[in-house]
Specification:
about 15% strand, 2 domains, six-stranded parallel β-sheet, alpha/beta, Rossmann fold, globular
Length: about 375
């Protein structure tokens, strides 16, 4: 009898690992309990949430994990040896979800959409958050999730009292055991690793260090990025002080902006139109990444680059740099605020001291030169 409870069993084609398909197969691997993770957005948050996977595997070593997310976030989750199946919110994938049942569902998003995804399947146990079916109000499902839920309801708690990073709050809210400060889990394919090496070597030219400037952010909170002029001022000062190569990082929405930033500055503009996976390769080819609280920062954290991270509207304590970076806080007295619009004449991104940025980059240079070899040569995910 075929071992249908094997992690690799699909029921419609051989798994190519063995000629036999039973529990005597040398590749047989029990895939239980069946766990569903629902985390749809935002991109940086989805990437950060991969840090729960080691804790999940410690608690349930043989678990089979299905992760549902929203396009294009699935590109950040594949390949990942700790995730067995990645689905999106496309109609075809949601049809597939309806055919499945789970022992445990972990709902990380506090949203109606995530609760709607949960309603399309069956789960014996749910942790995290779900909507009240009558009112639509988002509520914590388990007692452990209440702390993270409370933070969303109180500016005082979120902005001032809480000192836990989001990675810790997630592990604790999902009752996954002791928080061990596990890293983000991101994996590059062999072809991507080769691209990183080629790109890093090409970018270096006669310089020993590549400093990447992640220039953009999502449109949800547009004040998490510096102005074009401020970027130019900082880059000019970095080039004046240090013998480094500057690379501008970003996505499709940053292409024209990067052209304005780079004009006359003798910097390199990385590809911005080739998708999230290529963006990971560009970040990995840098030694130091300067960024606001955005996807680019989370990519740099995941790829273990030195981060110079500045914070204006968002909370610095929620981001863990894992000892590889410097956090710079705006001098604006109204920070953090998490506002999506602002009418102040002097914005929080205008009040990040350039000298502080230069000092942080210098710390990054010391970190980089202390390594036995460049970071791009140590990619072994």
């Amino acid at each position: 009898m075929a071992a249908s409870n094997c992690r690799h069993f699909s029921g419609y084609k051989p798994c190519q690992r063995s000629d036999s398909c039973d529990s005597n197969c040398s590749s047989f691997e029990l895939g239980e309990p069946r766990v569903l993770i629902i985390h749809l957005e935002a991109l940086g948050a989805v990437l950060r949430a991969t840090s729960i996977l080691p804790a999940l595997k410690r608690k349930y070593p043989k678990s089979h994990i299905t992760w549902v997310t929203q396009r294009p976030a699935e590109a950040l989750l594949k390949p990942n040896h700790l995730i067995d199946r990645v689905l999106t919110t496309t109609a075809d994938d949601l049809l597939s979800l309806r055919a499945l049942e789970f022992d445990l569902a972990l709902v990380l998003d506090k949203s109606l959409k995530a609760s709607g995804v949960l309603s399309l399947t069956k789960a014996r146990e749910v942790r995290g958050f779900r909507a009240d079916p009558k009112t639509g109000a988002i509520l914590p499902v388990n007692e452990e999730a209440k702390e993270l839920w409370d933070l969303g309801l109180s500016d005082s708690l979120k902005f001032d009292l809480n000192q836990k990073p989001e990675t810790q709050l997630l592990v604790e809210s999902l009752a996954l055991g002791k928080f061990n400060r596990d890293p983000y889990i991101v994996e590059l394919s062999p072809d991507e690793k080769s691209k990183v090496r080629d790109r890093a070597i090409k970018w270096r030219e006669n310089h020993s260090v590549v400093v990447g400037f992640n220039t953009g952010c999502s449109g949800v909170i547009p004040y998490k990025k510096w102005t074009v002029e401020f970027h130019r001022r900082v880059i000019s000062e970095v080039k004046k002080r240090f013998d480094v190569q500057i690379v501008l990082l970003g996505g499709p929405e940053d292409t024209k902006r990067n052209d304005l930033i780079s004009a006359g500055l003798n910097v390199i503009s990385s590809p911005t139109e080739l998708g999230l996976r290529d963006g990971l390769c560009s970040v990995a080819a840098c030694d130091i990444v300067v960024s606001g609280d955005s996807l680019g920062l989370h990519m740099a954290i995941a790829l273990e680059r030195f981060c110079v991270a500045w914070f204006g509207p968002t909370c610095p304590q929620e981001i863990d740099l894992y000892g590889r970076g410097i956090k710079l806080l705006t001098a604006a007295p109204c920070s953090p605020c998490w506002k999506r619009s602002c009418t102040k004449s002097l914005m929080c991104y205008d009040e990040v001291p350039i000298d502080a940025v230069i000092s942080a980059v210098e710390q990054g240079l010391k970190w980089t030169t202390s390594l036995s070899k460049p970071p791009f040569l140590e990619i072994s995910f």
